[in-house]
Amino acid sequence: MRIQRFDHRSATQLAAAAVTAAVILAPAVSAAQSQLPPTSPTLQCPDANPLLVVPPEIVSSGGILAGTINLTEQFIRLPTSLNGAVTCAPQLVRIFQGSGLPPSPSAQPPVPNYADPMPGPTLRARVGDLVQLAFINQVNSNRFDRNIDIEACTQTQAGGQSVYPGNFDKYPNCLHASSTANIHFHGTHTSPSSTGDNVYLQIRPLPRDNQGNLTVTPAAATVSLSDFFGICTQQLKNPLNQWPVHWNDMPRPYIDKQIEMLTTYQQQNPSQPLWDNDQKALAAGEWPQYYIGAVPYCYALPAYTASVWPPPPGSTSPNMGQSPGTHWYHAHKHGSTAINVGNGMTGAFIIEGKYDDDLNAFYSRYILKDGRPWSTRAQPVMVLNQLETTNNLLVGGGAGPPDFVVNGRLRPVVQMQPGEVQLWRIVNSAGRSAAYFMAPQGFQWRQIAQDGVQFANVNYLGSQNRPIYVAPGNRIDLLVKAPAQQTSAEVRIQNVMARSTVKPTPVNPTVTDPVPGIPLMTISVTGPPVTQSNRPADMPFINKAPEQPPFLVDIADWELRKNAYGSKTLDFRSGPPATPVQHTINGIQFEDNQAIVNVQLNVTEEWTIKNSTGLNTGPIDHPFHIHINPFQITEFFDPNENLVDPSTGQLEGKLVNGKTVPIPKYVLTGTPTTDPRQCVLNPDDPSTWKPCRITAGADLVWWDVFAISSGRKAPTATNAKNLIPGYFKMRSRFVDYAGLYVLHCHILIHEDRGMMFSVQVGKPTTTVLRHH
Fold first, then answer.
1. 755, part of any domain
2. Cα–Cα distance, 486 to 418 (Å, whole number)
3. Within a domain: residue 574?
4. pTM for the structure as a whole
5. Which residues pair with 383 in a beta bridge?
6. Are 298 and 229 spatial neighbours (Cβ–Cβ below 8 Å)?
């Protein structure tokens, strides 16, 4: 994270600018209330290498994950590094907080009036549970940017000239309404409709008076929601019952309060007909999109109850269950997803199941230094993010990507005992960069899950100490084993936008050819070893991965049946900056009438996902993400791919002029090969634009985010702009839940600016909810 990326006007100037920009949106707050705490341009930073802290948790009880997530603002000291020096800047950000939870530990030394960054509370449930969360938005939007929801884009000025959106971004595919929010529950197999994982919801902040005081309390905005949750519990005893279906299924007091607030807001802001739009949705039989103050989330995490897959005839089991593992949640309002995630509006969502039971059964015989047996609940949860308060688009490029923080801390220390094995649940919640992980020297690790879905045993056994590319939105579960002696080591990553930009380990490390990457955190191995039967013990890796549930069987050829819509190809493309329609899928942007994919319910499809970016840009691996159902990769082609040692997974390199450079796997026609494993791509022959060795095999990994490899320039005599696209082929079961949801690029500024499609599963509709 680089200090130049932040707006270094004084805190008072920032507040004044925010109020000025918001004056047409809502009543202005008083001067006293608009001031930030007294600040200087920088604050005293925490002690270097603070201990890792973990967010507080909301834990399910009696089969229900119940709680409240508040969206509010907070003054923080934001750490940033430049040329190795760390400084801390005062910033005002929007954050997720849980109600009634203990305060997060603060790094040392404390700074009055400022907190240290922390993700939202970790949600912890179990397969088969119901999620019942009240979401309350009580941000004071006057303190932030221009917060109009309809037909408007955030405006920035420099020297009297409009910097953004200029003449290229158009509503709704532009940055706007950053104080309107919702929650996406990333990795859940559940209903995408009504009060489920519905990212079309848009919840504006609670209203305020001229003094900045709330005129509607959270209690008034959530009136009768406890009754709703009680009814929802009964309705979702069958987890496939997608209830509620109609808005009238909601309690009348809640509906009446929403209508009152929406109509009042519309009267005060005639250009923002939120209630009129909701009425159009209701008339079309759809779920309304706009809310003020509060919404309930109530949905099932379905348990797969059959003993085999597919479920036998007459079975009441879903076709796919919720995968136990490391998932996460974040704000997903189109137009403000990137800035809200950059502010820190993310959190881990741990869904437990037999996966945890198997790990606990193997490791609970080992006793840690605090006297407790090893448990998955005591293992570190690590939410990575690239914190920022201004999108790169608004300040210009050239500053480089922000550093990664772990649970809000820059380069924290993870403590382990000699010989201990820890389960690290790592979430890359950053909205911009991938983190390429390299195993720390002297330690061992094995990956045991990807994107919240556990590995088949063969993949687990073959993962030891292999580097891992963790794209934005990806999650990994690692079993990390400390050496038997006290020591410390850095966990290093490379902060990259494409696999092809990853640097190999130096062939001959010198001052001019250093080991690549930057420290993400440090592992400190201290104290006594773990014990077993009151004796020091060296913990092993679990000898066999937890058994996968039946529904995670590989998607077979026989499942790819013909259907009304057939297979699909989606082509992600980014043009150079400041060009019209810069980020597209199949040449169009979100909300275009064609930007929707129709899929039948309870069928399996195979899609080709292409990346035609790279002609007028640097390499960008667009992370493809689709909601609700995970997928498997059956074919993968990266025209920029470099050779990898198959035994270690490490990039191979050769020494050129004192620098280690990667060895390309693919060369273009006319370029001599230097390694027998290299393959030739003919720029004039698209039939050669494919992997030279396809080894999909069995026991495939399940994903919900996979980075599409960037294209490669390959000019020909007749086409100077020829590009060889990267691509992968994916298979997915579109089962159990009908409705409308989205697929998009998980570089979130791309999603905000149009690189997103709707997915309609089930009967196509003329829904009015294709935008948000």
1. yes
2. 6
3. yes
4. 0.93
5. 427
6. yes
What is residue 742's DSSP assignment?
Answer: E
Phi and psi at residue 247, to the nearest 5°: -60, -25
- Residue bearing tokens 């809640």: 254
Where would I find the H helices in 321-456?
337-343, 354-363, 392-395
Residue 492 near residue 379, CB atoms below 8 Å: no
Pairing outcome for strands 468-470 and 161-164: unpaired
Side chain identity, residue 206:
L
Domain containing residue 739: 554-639+689-761
Q: Which residues contact 465 (CB under 8 A, 6 or more apart)?
A: 439, 444, 445, 648
Q: Model confidence over 411-445: pLDDT tens digits?
A: 999 999 999 999 999 999 999 999 999 999 999 99
- The span from the CA of 415 to the CA of 682, in Å, is 52
Residue 634 and residue 690 in contact, taking contact as beta carbons nearer than 8 Å: no
Q: What is the CATH number of the domain that holds 716?
A: 2.60.40.420
Instruction: Work out whether strand 346-352 and strand 122-126 pair parallel, antiparallel, or are unpaired.
Output: parallel
Q: Indicate the number of domains in the chain.
A: 1
Instruction: Give yes or no for a contact between 127 and 87, defined as CB atoms under 8 angstroms apart.
Output: no
User: Does some domain include residue 28?
Assistant: no
* Residues 6 or more apart whose Cβ sits within 8 Å of residue 227: 251
Residue whose C-alpha is closest to residue 393's, from 430, 434, 339, 472: 339
Residue 96, token pair as written in the block: 């997720």
Q: What is the DSSP letter of 227?
A: H
Dihedral angle sign, alpha carbons of residues 634, 648, 619, 681: negative
Residues of the chain with pLDDT under 70: 1-40, 83, 395-399, 562-564, 696, 764-772
